[in-house]
Structure prediction request, 196 residues.
Amino acid sequence: MTQETASFWLHVIFVSALVIWGAGAVFLLRAESALAASVTREVPLDGVSRPFLKIFASRLSEIRSQMVRGIALDVVEPSRVRWHSSSGFIHHGEARLEASPTRLQWSFEEGAHAFRMTGRFLIVFGFVVIVALYFILRTYALPSAMPGMVFQMMQAIHVLWPPFLIGGLALHSRRCMVDEIERIAHNVRFEAVSAA
Prediction:
């Protein structure tokens, strides 16, 4: 392989890695903003005074899936329930019963601090590795007797996939938690009728 051909392929792989790295950075930043937004929903109730929040709190404390990692209740009162994840920093939420028992309103927020720090580290680390690998190969492999060594730039793939994995897992975990709370909130009115 000639030095010109090796230089061409080094630049093609470097630019491709930067484009994929940029897509991963954008994905992580969008996932971060999606995780920062709180979810607020409400469920209509039948208007009859029943222990809706007590049942809601009971079902909420039973969540123990792998993605959710459990719920710890902070406050259980007749008009509201407040909770957080048992690990303490992943998420927290609150459910409120209005003055008239016609609807159950709940909100959920993600404490994305750990995700934010991990994501930003991956973005910076990935960029540094890609640029360092490019300059090392351009300086040492390209002018050597074996310029085909520039294909080692393909090793950059090891820093390209983690942002997609971390962001995807965080979004999936949030979706699972919101779906689980939504299911509990929807079913609480039927459980309250059978408990009465």
The helical segments are 3-36, 52-61, 113-141, 162-195. The radius of gyration is 25 Å. The chain has a mean pLDDT of 79. Residues 84 and 126 are 33 Å apart (CA to CA).
